Amino acid sequence: MPLPLINDYKTAIANAKGRFATLEFEPRLDARRSPVFLAGNFAGVFRVVTRDGEHLAIKCFTREVPDLPRRYSAVAKFCRSAQCPYVVPLQFLSAEVFVTSRVAPHADYAVVTMPWIDGRSIGAVAEILCQRGNAAALAGLTRAWSRLCLDLLQRGIAHGDLKHDNILVSQDGRLKLIDYDSMYLPELKGLPSTMLGGINFQHPKRDVRHFDAAIDHFSMLVILLSLRALTFGPELFRCHHNGENLILTKDDFTRPEGSDLLKVLAVSPDFHVRDWTSHLIKSAKAPSIGIPGMDVILKTAAKIDATPALPPKKALFSFFS
Questions:
Q1: Contact 231, 214 (CB under 8 A)
Q2: Ranges in the chain, pLDDT < 50
Q3: For this UniProt entry, which segments traverse the membrane (predicted)?
Q4: How many Cα atoms sit within 13 Å of 248 on the Cβ side?
Q5: C-alpha dist (Å) from residue 287 to 191, 264, 275, 312
Q6: Structure pTM?
Q7: Is 6-115 assigned to CATH 3.30.200?
Q8: What kind of architecture, by CATH, is found in domain 119-301?
Q9: Percent helix, strand and coil across the chain, each rounded to 5?
Q10: Where do you find CATH 3.30.200 in the chain?
Q11: Helix 294-301 to helix 135-155 angle, to the nearest 10 degrees?
């Protein structure tokens, strides 16, 4: 069934009284007095203020998500009960907003609500730190990213679309994940992926059949390697960031032998950058999208500082023996 357009939802949000079954709010408006929103592939997210002064994000779907009620009911339960510091509590309201549309039936449509998170994306924060040449803060951001990834792995879950603008750094410096359309939870096992994630962060062989706790491995490593590389080469952001990535792109994964950036990273003064570059190339060529030993890589990353790392002593001994 076709869903309303984003402009249909804008009209409903702007004239919310009588349109929403349970929610009462005032929309945040831009300079043109139009509701503030962010548009994505599957939905638009509007910023509103409730009668109690709480700032909410209301997600309205513009493309059909298979098994949407089952998926978001499970995600809402997890976010509410799992005590995971990296997710935001949300509500799935199955028939909340009445929308009139020229392309979809006049009907009540589902929305997802969650607290609005004030902060910058991890990509925006990385750019600022690179401009300032703040290696210590970039190393701290890398450690924080490692801890987030370890938390997901230990829970046996996956976000499904880890990328630079789905990870926020809140005003108190904490990392938060947003956009849970493709989240994997054990109780959703057997379903297909709803989407394949940002192409500049995903394994080149990922397809809809991949939907398990390993679907985040490659994007975890892409972001980890990018942040570590920027710690010692902040100019890489200016040279390789295109708005849809941190520094790496799909071409680096599909043709690693022709990647100038990977050649630079392979001779980094930092052992971890060299080692993780090797892991990334090996993974991109592998038939499986999971990365063996990803937890070991992340545990190492959770302890790093802004000093270029030397190879482990065992590796040195093997080299000279």
A1: no
A2: 316-321
A3: none
A4: 36
A5: 21, 25, 20, 29
A6: 0.94
A7: yes
A8: Orthogonal Bundle (1.10)
A9: 40, 15, 45
A10: 6-115
A11: 140
